[in-house]
Design a protein that fits this description.
By secondary structure, the protein is mostly helical. It folds into two domains: 77 residues, Orthogonal Bundle (Helix Hairpins), CATH 1.10.287.70; 215 residues, Four Helix Bundle (Hemerythrin (Met), subunit A). The protein is built from seven helices and no strands. It is globular, with a radius of gyration of 23 Å. The chain starts with 20 loop residues before the first helix and ends with a helix.
Length: 294
């Protein structure tokens, strides 16, 4: 919601006209999926298709969001649109909760049921050296029941994961301060703390990129490193992608704030991005404990 939207000045419920954006976004995603699939299967041209699709998709989203901002600034969004946006964002975050629940569930199932099954008496004849320890990597034991996983080292909670935890928790505080500043009408203070929040997100991603390079090159920890490697990269990788998306949300909200958008009374664009960022923070806390400590 924007500064130009006031109760009673907007339509009963704004319905936009026919738009090219959905079909254009679908075209971009087609090239993304085509390129990713072909690249993974060894076709070099897939990388170009993936890059083209991502660029196409980004341009379409920029135009789509720009239209939404113009509609909001033009006073077309009233209370009913505000409620629609809130419900939409809430259901979107719920879908993200279920998304991460699937990966946390896979990690839980592997550790609680799969490992004990492989180490049971029924499997001792096939894999006599296998022990039910996580992550199936210890001296004198196989790295996998079939012996097909190369030796690797795991990543503990110190120092980078703990530093990243502090960064995300701090970013949640700075974002909350910015929100309170906006509600009090202190726009300059709000913008300053928003830039600080964006910076913290960027630093988090930088540390995670360094951690990945160290794990892959120095620890031989890869996606092929058994269930540990696959769940480690899926959980931390998808979370990192969500941090990147959330950081972009906050960046664009900050730029809108600098243009004078939003008021202390109506600023759901800000609130929606804040909801998403706090969700990312909570997921990281669970990930920090389940992946790095346990």
């Amino acid at each position: 919601m924007s500064a130009a939207t006031h109760h009673g000045h907007a339509p009963y419920y704004f319905v936009p006209g026919p738009s090219r954006h959905p079909i254009m976004a679908a075209i971009g995603l087609f090239f993304v999926m085509l390129g990713a699939g072909q690249w993974i299967n060894g076709h070099g041209w897939g990388a170009y298709s993936l890059a083209f699709g991502l660029l196409w998709w980004a341009v379409v989203l920029y135009q789509w969001f720009a239209d939404s901002v113009r509609e909001s600034e033009g006073g077309l969004y009233g209370d009913r649109i505000d409620v629609s946006y809130r419900w939409s964002m809430a259901w979107f975050i719920f879908s993200e909760v279920m998304f991460f629940a699937a990966f946390f569930g896979a990690l839980f199932w592997a550790r609680t049921f799969t490992l004990p099954t492989f180490a049971s008496l029924d499997h001792q004849i096939l894999w006599p050296d296998f022990k039910a320890v996580w992550p199936s990597q210890a001296p004198g034991m196989t790295a996998s029941p079939a012996g097909i996983v190369e030796p690797f080292e795991t990543i503990g909670p110190w120092p980078i994961p703990t530093i990243n935890t502090a960064l995300l928790l701090t970013s949640g505080v700075t974002l909350t301060i910015a929100h309170h500043a906006l509600r009090l009408g202190h726009r300059a203070r709000c913008i300053a703390f928003m830039w600080l929040t964006v910076l913290l997100g960027i630093v988090f991603l930088g540390f995670q990129a360094y951690e990945y390079a160290h794990a892959w090159n120095d620890l031989n920890l890869k996606l092929s490193s058994g269930i540990y490697g696959s769940t480690f990269y899926l959980l931390t990788g998808f979370h990192g992608f969500h941090v990147f998306v959330g950081m972009l949300m906050l960046l664009f909200i900050t730029l809108r704030l600098m243009k004078g958008h939003f008021t202390p009374e109506r600023h759901f664009g800000f609130e929606g991005a804040a909801w998403y960022w706090h969700f990312v923070d909570v997921v990281w806390l669970g990930l920090y404990v389940a992946v790095y400590w346990l």
